[in-house]
Amino acid sequence: MTDLSAEDAKLVTLARATRARAGAADGAAVRDADGRTYAAASVDLASLRLSAVAVCVGMAVSSGATGLEAAVVLTEADALAGADLEALRDLGGDDVLVHLGDPRGRVRASRTA
């Protein structure tokens, strides 16, 4: 795992636990500009498919968040989907820090959105 701040390590823990609890393919967690955290798992129903990032950003927006500081996405995918990056940028701007890791919580890449 790359060197993470304590706050970002908390996001990894939240994303990992949420993904495991839901039995989902992906997990994500974000921290808003006020320090509040939101964690979610991907949704894969016959009538509804949402990425874990989309659910997190939606939760943050519906809770009144006006910005994002950081995000963690745990997935088997090699890169974050374009739509997920756009959602993070929409709320957090280009400077939101994004950590990409595997489902076990090992962060393999960090970048700004």
What features would you describe in this structure?
This protein has 113 residues and is an alpha+beta fold. 35% of the residues lie in helices and 29% in strands. A five-stranded mixed beta sheet has the order 2-1-5-6-7, sandwiched between helices. Strands 3-4 form a two-stranded antiparallel ribbon. Strand 6 (97-101) and strand 7 form a beta hairpin. The relative contact order is 0.22.
**Could you estimate the helical fraction of the residues in percent?**
25-40%
Cα-atom radius of gyration: 12 Å
Order of helices and strands: HEEEEHEHEE
Distance between the termini: 19 Å
Largest sheet: 5 strands, mixed
Low-confidence stretches: none
Broad structural category: alpha+beta
Physical arrangement of strands within the biggest beta sheet: 2-1-5-6-7
The average pLDDT score comes to: 95
Proportion in β-strands: 25-35%
Tally of separate helices: 3
Strands, count: 7
Describe the global form. Answer: globular
